[in-house]
């Protein structure tokens, strides 16, 4: 069963608690493995239970709704537009000399590059561990701890990036870094969504966002090396 929790329970986003409960009971009877229905399915009842657990709790439902809004195409387009606008502010002319380039390389690029690596490198190992049983609470807790650590490192990288304008000579490096951080933001949101709905599409999208970020990291490193020569 794919889609978000509302689609899983076949209800609208404005459904009341009573409507959610009725939908859950109807689907639970229909898909429960112990029922005599031809449509009985263990996988579907797991998805139905997960959806009901979130949507029946007002606090969890509010958090989930906020994540759905944050992951909407409109919000992503807005983040991209904001990223572009912010990046252009960093293109202001600065006095160009080798000491300034070296300072930005050592104090901005290098620590950000390390943080990006610390976010991306563990992902495959973390997913391999989780794949043993995604519904195991302990395995999921470890994965969520990894995501929280990534979020903290990403926030630190963004702070470092915003602390000083890049020299003109490093403009392409800065552009690659900025969009790398942007992809990591989207990737983390997709992976965090997966921990809520167990939808493989969120997991795969998150992995692809990380791969795109890694390509930009490599691109930034190559350009930075050329600028240092």
UniProtKB/TrEMBL annotation:
Protein name stated in the entry: Chaperone protein DnaJ 1
Gene coding for it: dnaJ1
PANTHER family linked to this entry: DNAJ HOMOLOG SUBFAMILY C MEMBER 4, PTHR44825
Pfam family, one: DnaJ
Source taxon at top rank: Bacteria
Signal peptide region: none
PROSITE patterns: DNAJ_2 (PS50076)
J domain boundaries: 4-68
């Amino acid at each position: 069963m794919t889609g978000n929790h509302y689609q899983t329970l076949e209800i609208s986003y404005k459904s009341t608690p009573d409507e959610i409960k009725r939908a859950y009971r109807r689907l639970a009877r229909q898909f429960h493995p112990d029922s005599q229905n031809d449509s009985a399915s263990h996988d579907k009842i797991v998805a139905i239970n997960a959806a009901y657990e979130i949507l029946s709790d007002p606090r969890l439902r509010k958090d989930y709704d906020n994540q759905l809004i944050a992951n909407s195409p409109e919000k992503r387009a807005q983040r991209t537009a904001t990223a572009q606008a912010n990046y252009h502010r960093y293109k202001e002319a600065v006095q160009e000399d080798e000491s300034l380039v070296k300072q930005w390389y050592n104090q901005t690029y290098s620590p950000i590059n390390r943080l990006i690596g610390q976010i991306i490198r563990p992902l495959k190992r973390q997913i391999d561990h989780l794949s043993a049983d995604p519904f195991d609470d302990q395995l999921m807790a470890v994965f969520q701890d990894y995501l929280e650590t990534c979020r903290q490192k990403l926030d630190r990288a963004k702070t470092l990036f915003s602390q000083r304008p890049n020299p003109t000579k490093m403009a392409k490096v800065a552009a690659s870094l900025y969009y790398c951080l942007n992809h990591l933001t989207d990737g983390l949101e997709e992976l965090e969504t997966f921990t809520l709905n167990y939808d493989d599409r969120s997991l795969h999208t998150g992995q692809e966002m990380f791969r795109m970020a890694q390509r930009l990291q490599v691109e930034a490193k190559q350009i930075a090396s050329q600028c240092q020569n």
